[in-house]
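Q: I'm building a small set of examples for a reading group on sequence design. Run inverse folding on the following structure and report the sequence directly after it, with nothing in between.
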């Protein structure tokens, strides 16, 4: 699987983690919170430099 995510500064990474924690405190599952925040980041950073992550789990 190939996933494109914008490169985030340390501060942006911290903000994303805090947002995930807030969503989880409101009752959202960790997976849902991560997916939502990832989507928000993608939308916010459209056109920015993207980091490509290879997930080898699909190759097993």
């Amino acid at each position: 699987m190939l996933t494109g995510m914008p490169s985030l500064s340390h501060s942006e990474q911290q903000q994303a983690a805090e947002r995930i924690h807030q969503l989880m405190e409101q009752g959202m599952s960790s997976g849902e919170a991560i997916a939502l925040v990832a989507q928000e980041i993608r939308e916010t950073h459209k056109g920015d430099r993207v980091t490509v992550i290879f997930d080898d789990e699909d190759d097993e």
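The chain has one domain: 2-59.
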